[in-house]
Amino acid sequence: EAQVTQNPRYLITVTGKKLTVTCSQNMNHEYMSWYRQDPGLGLRQIYYSMNVEVTDKGDVPEGYKVSRKEKRNFPLILESPSPNQTSLYFCASSPGLMNTEAFFGQGTRLTVV
Amino acid sequence: SQQGEEDPQALSIQEGENATMNCSYKTSINNLQWYRQNSGRGLVHLILIRSNEREKHSGRLRVTLDTSKKSSSLLITASRAADTASYFCATSWFQKLVFGTGTRLLVSP
After folding, report:
1. Chain A touched by B50 (CB under 8 Å)
2. Which residues touch A5 (CB under 8 Å, ≥6 apart)?
3. Which of A42, A48, B31, B51 has the smallest C-beta neighbourhood within 10 Å, fewest atoms?
4. Tens digits of per-residue pLDDT, B27-69?
């Protein structure tokens, strides 16, 4: 089954404790991205990757890192999480960006206390 | 901000009625897409309309696009309780996919 898999689905952590949210897709898609969703603000792009070893900042990249060492994986790293990073995070992939749909993971609800 | 905006923010209708949601955006686009999200879950793609298209249909969905007004509308005909969800428009311009703030649709039996 074609899918984007995120882990964990739920995470509660403390301020400053490094964490990684994993994202994997099995559709051989080139384009992957991370979004955060906050009430009233919709989805905002954090980082995106157009292919292996090619990443770039989205609209809200501060406090996040990503890597794209393999085509299928695109982990999101929070080196020193803070409470304002409490949010619902989504990973997405698509074959490209021109006239193609994006496939979303089920989301990771992160709480930083 | 490049974000689009949906209107209304919330919509409550009865089963069988039609639901219309509007989206306005600010930048040039390659295409505009509509997604559905059920209560905090992942987004599901509904329909994509290219910048050179004016109208597109998919089942009970009808999407229009007016690039001169930088706006789009999504019509769901003969709505069902299962259509209850949040609906987002997203504009695509090369490497960026920018989402609007969403419309919450409640369809009552």
Report:
1. yes
2. A22, A23, A24, A25, A26, A105
3. B51
4. 888 899 999 999 878 899 999 999 999 999 999 999 999 999 9
